């Protein structure tokens, strides 16, 4: 059983998946939020696997495992599945997930656990087992070096004709014989291929189509290699390297992280803005500064995501498809459809920042006008003797007046 930390993470994963499925069912307007929840659940599942790996390394007993192999395999499958679902929601505007959504995530997880536990062998283990025990049709270990005169030439043929020979044993003579002949130099050839050469009518249309497709693929590869050699001879430049799958996945992962951060930050700033507006605290300068800082942080994350997406798009455009040739136009990247949406969200966040700044300026101007009025009004009233408490005596006519100026004091 996993520890308490992993139990808490599993509960959070199930809760996030429930919210994501509800958002996905609600319509296309909540696609981004649903995809974000799916990504968060995948992140938590990866964290569970990482915690399990760390506990396994720290423990002295190598056989002690916190999470069983079936549970680990199930989590890995769920991470792959929900990552694809989130990518489809991000990059596909037409519709949501294909097929009906599950009614409950807990039920689907339990079904998957039962299917994994009841399966006798893992699919990978079944693939590793040899498909045939016949020594003639079994694959032989390849030799590393051959003499030039004894280069192995392999010809593969597939037969689609299947006949039942129990009722009519004479049909065995009409069927093409399939056997592998191993020559001394390492060359191999099927007897069925030799018989088909002598009798071309026995080949079906499907076999002819397969052979034509193989020949076309070989011609395309040969022509592409010749084009690359011609480019090197004429221009002296090597063909541009293709983007590896790992580089594409890593770039998409970084873009998704930035998009998730930007979306979450923008959602927090919108919630705070609506709360202050509902509580009639929009004129508070401290709250406005906090909201503006939150919008600015979201816009910075959007800028980082746009920059990463544009760099990935440039690399994707410079990529050469070897099957289409160097002069062919590249296929559109799925990242390219996200860039306009990110720019739209960035512009909306910056517009909100400008409106909040204008509000703050207006409130500052009105506050200054009010303070000036409060400062001006007592000065006007202090000059008139009726409104001042000093009067003629307060102005000093009696204290500093004729007596104070020395009229009476001089007489004394």
TrEMBL record:
Residues 145-242 are annotated as: Disordered. Residues 193-205 have a biased composition (Polar residues). Residues 148-168, 206-218 have a biased composition (Low complexity). This is Uncharacterized protein. It comes from Fragilariopsis cylindrus CCMP1102. The lineage of its organism: Eukaryota, Sar, Stramenopiles, Ochrophyta, Bacillariophyta.
């Amino acid at each position: 059983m996993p520890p308490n930390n992993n139990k808490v993470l599993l509960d959070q994963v199930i809760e996030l998946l429930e919210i994501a499925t509800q958002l996905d069912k609600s319509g296309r307007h909540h696609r981004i939020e649903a995809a974000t929840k799916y990504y968060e659940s995948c992140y938590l599942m990866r964290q569970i696997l990482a915690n399990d790996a760390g506990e396994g390394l720290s423990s002295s007993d190598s056989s002690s495992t916190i999470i069983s192999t079936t549970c680990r395999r199930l989590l890995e499958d769920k991470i792959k599945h929900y990552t694809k679902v989130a990518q489809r929601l991000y990059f596909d505007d037409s519709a949501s997930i294909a097929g009906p959504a599950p009614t409950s995530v807990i039920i689907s997880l339990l079904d998957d656990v039962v299917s994994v536990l009841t399966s006798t062998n893992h699919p990978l283990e079944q693939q590793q087992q040899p498909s045939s025990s016949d020594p003639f049709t079994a694959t032989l270990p390849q030799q590393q070096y051959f003499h030039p005169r004894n280069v192995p030439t392999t010809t593969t043929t597939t037969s689609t004709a299947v006949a039942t020979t129990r009722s009519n044993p004479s049909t065995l003579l009409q069927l093409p014989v399939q056997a592998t002949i191993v020559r001394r130099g390492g060359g191999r050839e099927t007897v069925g291929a030799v018989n088909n050469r002598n009798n071309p009518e026995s080949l079906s249309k499907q076999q002819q189509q397969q052979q034509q497709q193989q020949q076309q693929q070989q011609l395309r590869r040969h022509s592409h290699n010749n084009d690359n050699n011609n480019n090197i001879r004429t221009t002296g430049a090597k063909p541009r390297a293709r983007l590896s799958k790992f580089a594409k996945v890593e770039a998409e992962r970084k873009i998704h992280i930035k998009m998730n951060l930007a979306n979450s930050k923008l959602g927090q700033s919108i919630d705070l803005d609506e709360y202050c507006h509902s509580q009639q605290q929009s004129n508070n300068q401290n709250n406005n500064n906090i909201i503006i800082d939150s919008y600015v942080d979201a816009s910075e994350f959007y800028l980082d995501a746009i920059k990463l997406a544009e760099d990935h798009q440039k690399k994707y455009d410079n990529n050469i498809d070897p099957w289409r040739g160097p002069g062919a136009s590249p296929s559109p990247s799925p990242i390219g459809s996200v860039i306009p949406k990110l720019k739209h969200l960035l512009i909306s966040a910056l517009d909100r920042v400008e409106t909040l700044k204008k509000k703050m300026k207006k409130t500052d101007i009105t506050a200054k006008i009010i303070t000036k009025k409060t400062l001006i009004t007592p000065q006007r009233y202090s000059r008139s003797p009726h409104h001042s408490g000093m009067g003629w005596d307060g102005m000093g006519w009696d204290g500093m007046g004729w007596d104070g100026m020395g009229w009476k004091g001089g007489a004394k």
